[in-house]
């Protein structure tokens, strides 16, 4: 929005060139002042004037100043530890580190996958809400591993439908407390927001149908390493379901994990990693599969447990 100013020429500017007077009055360069005059944005006693005209003290100036230039949007910062596993014209697969969310959310000031992609020069699909463009599924901030993001509009549409129809295969590894009984099983229990309203989710009668399949890969004295396949993709699903059967993910203090065990293993978050992701490529219609190794903190916890057995 332009800014209109009206004032008399001060005594101290008597006899100055008009462009010099405007420059001094408004803190502009002589060139910018001359441009304003040429554009007809400066009137002297109600009439246009030339930049070289001399001004008289007391003459009335009407000046229309342009709006200040808007500050450029801050450039997204690279996300340390986030790697691009695969990229083509339609999709990009990232290996997400801990402490990173998929897209901007209310109250989150930390790094996001979208920021990391933009900083790396990756363009994503514009479909979806503005703050989550290209995002077809998410991982919790402190869950690491594989995420696919849509780059093309057709990929966004096809992948959103694939996740909804459960044709995307998501495999996680989780280190949980104790030993699930049976060692292999299915948890079929509805999930919704916890009645406390504190941000947790819980098994709630009438919640959204949620199905988790698990299998024990390795058993330790105090914990078990599980392979988990999700049939549904609810928020915090694995964490809620494992807590519900009294085997929370190691380090997951929000869902009842033992802080002493977490501290002993050097785990400062839930031990949960999206280790494998497979689906049909949205435009090439071929099966694709990606795998991710354990991050250092999760690997170290397993080393400690194996040394104790």
UniProtKB/TrEMBL annotation:
Annotated RNA-binding S4 domain residues: 16-74
Keywords of this entry: Isomerase, RNA-binding
Swiss-Prot/TrEMBL GO biological process terms: enzyme-directed rRNA pseudouridine synthesis
Single Gene Ontology MF annotation: RNA binding
Family in the record: Belongs to the pseudouridine synthase RluA family.
Protein name according to UniProt: Pseudouridine synthase
Function: Responsible for synthesis of pseudouridine from uracil.
Reaction(s) this enzyme catalyzes, per UniProt: a uridine in RNA = a pseudouridine in RNA
Database matches in InterPro entries: PsdUridine_synth_cat_dom_sf, PsdUridine_synth_RluA-like_CS, PsdUridine_synth_RluC/D, PsdUridine_synth_RsuA/RluA, RluA_PseudoU_synthase, S4_RNA-bd, S4_RNA-bd_sf
EC main group: isomerase
Gene3D superfamilies: Pseudouridine synthase, RNA-binding S4 domain
PANTHER family, per the entry: MITOCHONDRIAL RNA PSEUDOURIDINE SYNTHASE, RIBOSOMAL LARGE SUBUNIT PSEUDOURIDINE SYNTHASE D
Active site residues according to the UniProt entry: 140
EC number: 5.4.99.-
């Amino acid at each position: 929005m332009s800014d209109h100013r009206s004032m008399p020429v001060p005594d101290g500017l008597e006899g100055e060139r008009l462009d010099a007077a405007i420059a001094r009055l408004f803190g502009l360069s002589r060139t910018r002042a001359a441009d304003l005059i040429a554009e007809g944005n400066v009137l002297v006693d109600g009439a246009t004037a030339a930049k070289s005209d001399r001004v008289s003290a007391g003459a009335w100036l009407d000046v229309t100043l342009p709006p200040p230039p808007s500050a450029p949007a801050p450039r997204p910062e690279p996300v340390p530890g986030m790697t691009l596993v695969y990229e083509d014209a339609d999709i990009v697969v990232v290996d997400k580190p801990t402490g990173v969310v998929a897209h901007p959310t209310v109250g989150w000031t930390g790094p996001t996958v979208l920021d990391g992609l933009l900083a790396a020069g990756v363009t994503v699909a514009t479909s979806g809400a503005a703050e989550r463009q290209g995002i077809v599924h998410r991982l919790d901030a402190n869950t690491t591993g594989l995420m696919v993001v849509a780059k093309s509009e057709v990929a966004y549409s096809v992948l959103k439908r694939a996740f909804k129809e459960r044709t995307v295969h998501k495999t996680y590894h989780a280190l949980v407390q104790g030993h699930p009984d049976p060692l292999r099983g299915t948890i079929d229990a509805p999930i919704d927001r916890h009645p406390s309203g504190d941000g947790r989710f819980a098994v709630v009668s009438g919640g959204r149908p949620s199905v988790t399949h698990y299998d024990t890969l390795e058993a330790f004295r105090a914990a078990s390493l599980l392979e988990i396949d999700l049939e549904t993709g609810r928020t915090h699903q694995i964490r809620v379901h494992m807590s519900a059967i009294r085997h929370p993910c190691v380090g997951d203090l929000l869902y009842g994990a033992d802080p002493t065990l977490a501290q002993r293993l050097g785990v400062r978050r839930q031990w949960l990693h999206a280790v494998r992701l497979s689906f049909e490529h949205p435009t090439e219609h071929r099966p694709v599969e990606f795998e991710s190794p354990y991050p250092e903190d999760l690997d170290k916890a397993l080393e400690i447990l194996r040394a104790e057995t």
